[in-house]
Amino acid sequence: MHTVIVTAAGLVLLGMFLLLARFWASDRGILAVGAKAFIPVWLALTLVNLWIGVRYAGYTLLQELPILVITFGIPAVAALLVIKRTGGRRRP
Fold first, then answer.
1. Which residues of the chain have pLDDT under 50?
2. HSE-CB of 39 using CA atoms within 13 angstroms
3. I want to staple 88 with a disulfide (CB 3.0 to 4.6 A). Which of 32, 53, 62, 77 is the partner?
4. Do 87 and 32 form a contact (C-beta atoms < 8 A)?
């Protein structure tokens, strides 16, 4: 259940990054900037989640790594889809 909650929190955080980027500028390309900013922040937060699971919950690193892949991967893939759909590459 914790994995589902953390993954959902990542998707909510992505939405918040996208809303903040949208309020920052009206250009659609700015959404890609928000999604790009989200990825390293989310990686750091999921690594903290991994550390807490190993340090305090008593799981081993090998038990926590698949959870890290899920909790980081699903929101990160969603962010990559936003980047792709909103023109994450600058055109000359």
1. 92
2. 14
3. 32
4. yes
Please give the full DSSP string across 40-63, using - where no structure is assigned.
HHHHHHHHHHHHHHHHTS---HHH
Read off the amino acid at residue 9: A
Please write the tens of the pLDDT for every residue from 55-71.
Answer: 999 899 999 999 999 99
Q: Which residue has the tokens 């700015």?
A: 30
- Residue corresponding to tokens 């937060």: 45
Q: Are the C-beta atoms of 64 and 54 separated by less than 8 Å?
A: yes
Judge contact between 54 and 3, C-beta under 8 A. Answer: no
Residue 41 tokens, joined: 């922040």
**What are the structure tokens assigned to 77, written together?**
């893939």
* Distance spanning both ends of the chain, measured CA to CA: 46
The model's pTM is 0.87
8 A C-beta contact, residue 72 and residue 42: yes
Q: Residue for token digits 């949208």?
A: 22
